[in-house]
Amino acid sequence: MSMYPIVEARFLAPDVKWLAIEAPRIARKHQAGQFVIVRAHEHGERIPLTIAHASAKNGTVAIIVQGVGKTTKLINTLEAGDSLVDIVGPLGKPTEIENYGVVAVIGGGVGAAIAYPSAVALRQAGNAVLSIVGARTKQLVILENEMRAATSELFVMTDDGSYGEQGFVTHKLQQLIDERRIDRVLAIGPTTMMQAVAELTRPHGIPTIVSLNPIMVDGTGMCGGCRVLVGGENRFACVDGPEFDAHAVDFRSLIQRNRVYRQREQAALDKFHETHTCRLFTTPGSQ
Amino acid sequence: MREALPPKERTKIPRQEMPERDACERAHDFGEVNLGFNAALAEHESQRCLTCVDPKCTRGCPVGVKVREVVELVLAGEYLKAGAKLREDNVLPAVTGRVCPQETQCEGACVLGKRFAPVAIGHIERFVADYERAAGAAGLPERAPATGKKVAIVGSGPAGLSCAGDLILRGHEVTVFEALHELGGVLVYGIPEFRLPKEIVRNEIDNMRRMGVNFETNVVIGKTITIDELLTEEGCQAVFVATGAGLPKFLNLPGEHLGGVYSANEFLTRVNLMRAYDAEHYDSPIYDCRNRSVAVIGGGNTAMDAVRSAVRLGAAQAMIVYRRGEQELPARQEEVHHAKSEGVQFLTLHNPLEFLGDDRGMLTGMRLQKMELGEPDESGRRRPAPIVGSEFVLPIDVAVVAVGSAANPLVQSTTPDLATNPWGYIVADPYSFRTSKQGVFAGGDIVSGAATVILAMGSGRKAAASIHEYLTTNAW
Ligand SMILES: Cc1cc2nc3c(=O)[nH]c(=O)nc-3n(C[C@H](O)[C@H](O)[C@H](O)COP(=O)(O)OP(=O)(O)OC[C@H]3O[C@@H](n4cnc5c(N)ncnc54)[C@H](O)[C@@H]3O)c2cc1C
Ligand SMILES: Cc1cc2nc3c(=O)[nH]c(=O)nc-3n(C[C@H](O)[C@H](O)[C@H](O)COP(=O)(O)OP(=O)(O)OC[C@H]3O[C@@H](n4cnc5c(N)ncnc54)[C@H](O)[C@@H]3O)c2cc1C
Ligand code: SF4
Ligand code: SF4
Ligand code: FES
């Protein structure tokens, strides 16, 4: 049995954890926008997570995990010295990086972290990168310093106004589009946010790329579970994506498909809560 | 040795039936359906063989198993020797004895079949292999001295495993790379436990490990490592690509995106690889089949495996929807027979037109059209034609699309100098298994298109011989 040791683990925000994992082959090959599929334990499910950072030198890849259900919450209880049973990757097509001019990179929630490597690569390719990072509240804003260093201008938006400006990322994007020329938009976050961004840029004809998060199993194009309708055609997000032209994506069917397992997931989570207490909710602040 | 009966007496013995678990009992769990012959049944059945001078059965077998000699050894009670004889041509007899479409291969060619039922070769093969395993005596063959040559095998299905098994014997260093977290290819993620217990595949893999084969799971060739890197940085002198035909086909009908519509690959992967049937202990959910209506579209082995899995997951109704007639069902006869006795309904001559859903995006039904058989088409099968005005709606909660698979492009797309045919399969010479790229060989479903376990295995073995020759002569 293969084992992949976790060499670093720390909370970035409540329920959002950064984990660096020893996986030298994946680290060497990673390009911005790609993901891994992991299993936490021998009886675990396979879940996809974006590679937030890779160090070929240290042979590690980092993931940022938001605890939303059984598996992600379980992973977030792991510490340096623990291991994952499986990690495979880098999967998916890398973000297309060219010099487009002015690129707005939008990250909602943990999407901000996922967008980070792409923002860095776009900047390196000569783009002016405007980042809009959104979160529900101040505590949930992550990688702000890293993002600030990687981009030309950073705008932080919170739903409750506890930090940065109050409002959704789309408010800021609208404002920027009204004020200046934007050549391309990359949006990563909750599906509803990406859909809203797509609707906003569509009338302006601004090429917009989104990173989709359908339910995946194998990640190699074998199961078809990750199929999404793009331009009326069946595309497999794990091999043809995960990034697609936002204006061609059928968001409605994606949102519906992602809900299929909701009942089972809730049951699994309830059961998990019964058996795992306290450790789960400790964040760096509360320790 | 038993006194050989005169041929006339032999033909009087009826074909021995495979003992199987009661349909009512087995339809509720994933335990194996067939129980296997015991020694008495195996001997009895072997007595039926006419020990032909020119055994047609061997010619009907894609790898030329010496059936007659195996049968004679069984009659002599030399089961371990019979096992060794089988393994001369077939490295996975416990698997093929269970899953080969014998009726179109060895048994289809058996002369007894002309007037009587053919010898139950598959059942005898399984008996011998299981005996060997139970005795813990599958003697590990002798390995040739180390050659210092290194070979990478891409994919751990039957083609990859059998190629690895042969190359390790010839003294080469062999590493098998597998994309998934479990080894065995379709044998573990596709074919369900009730037909092929995973223990058997694991046992074969353990034997290979003991012989020195390295296995690396979680490596996607083309992504984690490319073919070119295998040949350079990883220090391999040859690569065998056996990635299978894993890309699921869809019907491209309206509503195929509804929740509750699966490809057979996803459905079976969740059930087998992710053990959805054991929800108590495993995390992977599957949209619940319990007390629901499940329709599987297709008529091959994959469709039968999916529909019988649905029965075991507690479906209230489990149906096969197939465009052609019952005669045309491509699945093994035994699977069709088992499915029927487990309560599966067969809607043959029915063609799906559309999936229907509710406002939450969940499947509620399927619009079907009845078909009738017309003139034979190019394949010689009678072409189904729609009956006008016969459309109706079948209420269902789960649909599984099992209409075949295509070539997975992961390796090909990252290896530009690897020639493919217009359907994306890798082009390889039928005798040498060489591809357009020096040092790279390919076999199994990724070359032939979706076929059978035994064909994949046969090509793996022939490729091994060709790879060995290349490594010895260095001539391409
Ligand atoms: C390409 C890709 C990259 C992703 N990157 C990240 C990331 O960097 N950080 C992060 O926190 N999350 C990421 N996700 C989402 C993450 O995979 C899900 O949150 C996770 O699978 C949920 O599992 P769970 O058991 O904790 O929750 P569950 O309770 O099982 O599910 C919660 C929700 O997650 C989704 N989900 C469930 N299972 C899967 C699955 N096998 N594949 C995809 N989605 C699923 C469903 O929409 C579900 O409603 C990514 C998803 C995709 C497809
Ligand atoms: C549900 C089902 C039932 C079947 N029933 C029967 C039956 O009863 N009898 C019969 O004879 N045949 C049956 N078949 C067909 C038979 O299983 C196949 O023909 C056979 O398995 C093909 O073997 P293979 O080695 O070519 O490929 P596979 O068994 O498909 O194995 C290929 C392996 O390669 C791996 N792989 C793919 N891409 C990569 C990559 N880039 N890097 C690393 N690894 C990779 C895959 O994950 C897989 O494990 C069935 C098939 C299915 C799907
Ligand atoms: S390998 Fe298959 S075809 Fe050949 S003899 Fe055995 S069961 Fe028959
Ligand atoms: S063809 Fe039939 S009868 Fe003849 S040797 Fe083979 S199994 Fe026996
Ligand atoms: S996750 Fe299975 S095909 Fe994409």
Could you describe the 3D structure shown?
The complex is a heterodimer of chains A (287) and B (476). Chain A folds into 2 domains: 4-91 and 266-275, Elongation Factor Tu (Ef-tu), domain 3 (Beta Barrel); 102-258, 3-Layer(aba) Sandwich (Rossmann fold). In chain A, 51% of the residues are buried. Chain A has helices at 24-29, 70-75, 111-124, 144-150, 169-179, 191-201, 237-240, 251-258, 262-275, and strands at 4-13, 16-22, 35-39, 47-55, 60-66, 83-84, 86-91, 102-108, 128-135, 153-158, 165-166, 184-188, 208-211, 227-230, 233-236, 243-245. Chain A has 287 residues and is an alpha/beta fold. Mean pLDDT of chain A is 88; it is low at 277-287. A 7-stranded antiparallel β-sheet of chain A has the order 6-1-2-5-4-3-7. Chain A has a 7-stranded mixed β-sheet with strand order 11-10-9-8-12-13-16, sandwiched between helices. In chain A, helix 5 (169-179) runs parallel beside helix 6 (191-201). Chain A is globular, with a radius of gyration of 18 Å. Chain A starts with a strand and ends in a 12-residue tail after the last helix. Chain A has 9 helices and 16 strands. Chain B is of the alpha/beta class. Chain B has 3 domains: 7-135, Fumarate Reductase Iron-sulfur Protein, Chain B, domain 2; 150-246 and 407-473, FAD/NAD(P)-binding domain; 248-405, FAD/NAD(P)-binding domain (3-Layer(bba) Sandwich), CATH 3.50.50.60. Helix content of chain B is 34%, strand content 16%. Chain B is built from 20 helices and 16 strands. Chain B has helices at residues 7-12, 23-26, 39-46, 56-60, 67-75, 79-87, 93-99, 106-109, 112-115, 121-134, 158-169, 186-189, 198-211, 227-231, 264-271, 301-312, 333-341, 410-413, 445-448, 453-473, and strands at 150-154, 173-177, 214-216, 238-241, 247-248, 261-263, 293-297, 317-322, 345-348, 350-357, 363-376, 382-386, 392-395, 398-401, 405-406, 440-442. In chain B, strand 11 (363-376) and strand 12 (382-386) form a beta hairpin. In chain B, helix 5 (67-75) packs across helix 10 (121-134). Chain B is globular. Bound molecules: flavin-adenine dinucleotide (2 copies), iron/sulfur cluster (SF4) (2 copies) and FE2/S2 (inorganic) cluster (FES). Residues 99-101, 154-160, 177-180, 185-186, 190-191, 220-222, 242-244, 246, 268, 301-302, 305, 332, 408, 410-411, 444-445, 450-454, 456 of chain B line the site of one flavin-adenine dinucleotide.
